Amino acid sequence: MSFLTPLFLLGGLAVALPIIFHLVRRSSREKMVFSSLMFLKPTPPRMTRRNRLENIFLLLLRCLAICLLAFGFARPFFQKPMAAVPQAATSSRLVLLVDASASMKREGLWSAALERGEALLKSASPGDQVCLLVYDDRIRTVVSFEEWAGFGIAERASLAARRLASNAPSWRSTHLGNALIAAAEILEDTESSRREQEPTGLKRIVVISDFQEGSRLDGLQGYEWPRGVEVAVEAVKAKRPTNAGLQWVLDAEDSLPAAAEAVARLRVSNSSDATAEQFQIRWDGIADAPSLDAYVPPGQSRIVPAPRLPAGVAGERLTLRGDDHDFDNLVHLVQPRAEEVNVLLLDDDRENDPGRLLYYLKRAFQDTRRQTVRINTLAGGTVPSAASLVTNRLLIVSRALPENQLTLARQSLSSGGTVLCVLNDATLGDTLGRLTGTAGLTVTEATVGNYAMFSQMDFEHPLLSPFSDPRFSDFSKIRIWKHRRLPLESLPDARVIARFDDQDPAIVEIPSGPGRVFVFTFSWRPADSQLALSSKFVPLLYSLLEQAGGLQAQLAQYRVGDTVDLAAVLAKSAGVELSVRQPDGSLIPLPAGETRFAQTEVPGVYEVIGPAVPVRFAVNLDLAESRTAPLALDELERLGLPLKPREIALSKPAELRQNLHNTELESRQKLWRWLIVAALVVLMGETLLAGWLTRRATRQIEATV
Amino acid sequence: MAIKNLELRARIVVEGFWHGIHRSPYHGFSVEFTEYRQYSPGDDPRYLDWQLYARTDRYYIKKFEDETNLRCYLLVDHSRSMDYGSLSYTKAQYANTLAATLAYFLYAQGDAVGLLTFDEKIREYLPARHRTGHLRRLMLQLEESAGGTATDLTAPLKRIVEVVRKRSLMVMISDLLAPIDALEKNLTSLAACGHDVMLFHVLDPAELAFQFDKAILFRDVESGRDLFIDPATARKEYLRQLNAHNAAVLAACQRLGVGYRRFATDRALELAMFDFLRERMQRGRFINRRR
Fold this sequence. Notes:
The structure holds two protein chains of two kinds.
Chain A: E1 2-3, H1 16-23, E2 31-34, H2 49-53, H3 56-73, E3 76-77, E4 93-99, H4 109-123, E5 129-135, E6 139-143, H5 145-150, H6 156-165, H7 176-194, E7 203-209, E8 229-235, E9 244-249, E10 265-270, E11 278-283, E12 292-295, E13 301-305, E14 317-321, E15 330-332, E16 339-346, H8 357-364, E17 371-377, H9 386-391, E18 392-397, H10 403-414, E19 418-422, H11 429-436, E20 444-445, E21 454-455, E22 484-485, E23 495-500, E24 505-512, E25 515-520, H12 537-547, E26 557-559, E27 564-565, H13 567-572, E28 579-581, E29 587-589, E30 596-597, E31 604-609, E32 615-620, H14 634-638, E33 643-644, H15 653-669, H16 671-704
Parallel strand pairs in A: 4-5, 4-7, 7-8, 8-33, 16-17, 16-18, 18-19, 19-25, 26-32
Antiparallel strand pairs in A: 1-3, 5-6, 9-10, 10-13, 11-12, 11-14, 14-15, 20-22, 21-23, 23-24, 24-25, 27-30, 28-29, 28-31, 31-32
Helix pairs in contact in A: 3-16, 4-6
Chain B: H1 6-21, E1 36-38, H2 50-56, E2 60-62, H3 65-68, E3 71-77, H4 91-108, E4 112-118, E5 122-129, H5 134-143, H6 154-163, E6 169-174, H7 181-192, E7 196-203, H8 205-209, E8 216-220, E9 226-229, H9 231-256, E10 259-264, H10 269-290
């Protein structure tokens, strides 16, 4: 005999009540008025033998009724053996996601996360399958399902906890959304591979994290969360809330003159649950540098200029003081160095002659903080060195070249260089033919009626793509008085980028081996066209320079985990062994042919060693990591995650099955009904007996009176 | 007791009694209404009964008719203990009806009836008279509810001794639920004054049997005192004490020649009247014998 709700058996203790009432029935609150108490003495209420014996059968009936009721409410049933169930079905799968992002570097958080993780691992039942993942903006598997299954049952929890403890928070940002999706997919993958053999168990993801506001959840947008995968949240909390972060704001205005005093600007952001508002910023490692006070209310950010450095001192690290956590208080700065770009004009133009090309070239390429464009010219027979070939990104040919210079230009083309051929006059046909390897190319002077205009511009070509916006695509104001005609039929590989309105090609790109030749069938001399005077001239030249590889995105600041594109550095230093010096001084050699550097694991200043001038770039913490206020967890629910409270035991399916079986047995047997009926019968008997006893007592009293 | 009006109730009892009297085996009794007293020197010779002297050759003083009429004082206990009743009426109602009945009966005979109600002190006093309206006043006084918090049997007796100089019939109606130490002494002085004293002891059947079964708090109706009492254990002692009390009262009455009657309130009033008259008759014989 078993009970479905055995706690109700405690109701059987109520059997004491009628016994007590029978024993102390004198202790009634009732009062009787009597004429005089002069013949009466007080008698204390006590349990006399007579009371106990009085109406003993009535007492037994009452006790029996209470016992039957308690027994009935306990829902008794006769136990029958349950059908055997394969043990594996009771197992559940658990993916433990531990946050190892930079914000977990805060005091006490990581150790708390390790403790929670160990407790969860230990609470897993032997049948459970556990996968342990650590995430920041990547996901790393610490213990996979297979490894867990391979461990001995006794020590698997401690082994996994030890592996987890060997990890440490990285400097990377938190991509909680991606981590959750990855975990759900791991569960789904194992699910689909196991589905044939075993029935499904409980699937759950437990996230141990500080759930900071800066966690990225964007991956979850539009992701359909798989059914049956629960998410439990284990938040670890920092003892002190205030955290301010520091970020270097890169200037967007590239055109600032290089001479201007450059002052780095910093964004100071304060966490929304902060208690402090006043912070100090100072240069790190410079003793007499002044500090700067920044006032930032909680949840807001301010941009402040970096404090001025003493003359002649260079600083690369700024620190922030005044908050509770130090992990994001250091920012690394690398002031951009103006890059020197060389353009070689194979002509002997005088600089001050406004009727020649150089005059406008010099004025078009102004020095900026990012780069200095130097225009070199070569007089008639001068032969430049091989090294100057490498440094000159763009060769401009504007006259028929002597043999030695032609060889130089061909060399440049064969090494992937870019040559701009400006057809000043029809004599350049031979030079162009030899540059492109087209024998017998003849260029003729076109006959232009009044003036020619550009038409059929190919804005999809990278050269003209900066003008693709309708605001900038109007070239109709440029009038061309003279241009040359290029026989396209003899140049099968040529791509016409722009034509004149008389259908003659205006700008043509001709590939030549790894390099390429851009041909302008006109020149920007005022005698030929208005191009040099139009607003299109400077952007067109910069676009050309960019096509020639002369303008590269500046390496300045990256976030931890970013991949740095070193293609520009590689292009400048072909054949040189490159390696990257990390902030701790160690060198990482860059494999040959690799243009990307991805090992930016630590914030600091990295240095690419190998080029003549080492390239430096700063790697800083993602500012999102500084937003350490707790994330509103209903945001997760809004994204469709079924959050479960932790209190629910990980898995007790065996117990659950037994309970279901018991409930079914009980509902089939329904013994409680008979017990209630029996209790009712006993109560009726009790009522009749009590009535009879009362009547008899009344009769006796009447008889005596 | 179903009849509200006390006077009507009394009249019905008396008339019923008169009707019943014909069926009674006791005939020829009468309340003494005349009196001859042997002449002693100093008595006024105007009151000498010459006819008696002619018959008996002895001097007898003949009392005036009104003087020789019976004066009856009803001493009715109006303490709160009389308010108790286990039947549909209380002891006080029963005692009042009894007093009213006697008053009506005596008044109808032309006797003077006085009233004294008391609890722990004297509450009302009406001298014995036989006047128009006197009976009505007496009934009104009787109908006043009981109010006292205790019973003092000494004060009314002392007072009546002081006030009533003439020889009278004293009928005391009480439950006597009070210490009786001084009762005997006062009864003695009352009897010594020549008064004819009768004691009607009114008790409720519940007081006599004490047949309660529940152990509960008992509240004294006079003092308001609460006592927890289990009748099962207390009954024996109660009955013993009550009987001792009653026995003490009876003994005192017998010593002093005071007529004593105990009425349980469930006893019919006619029978009480009958008891009263029989007592009177016996006392008349006793007095006559004494003479």
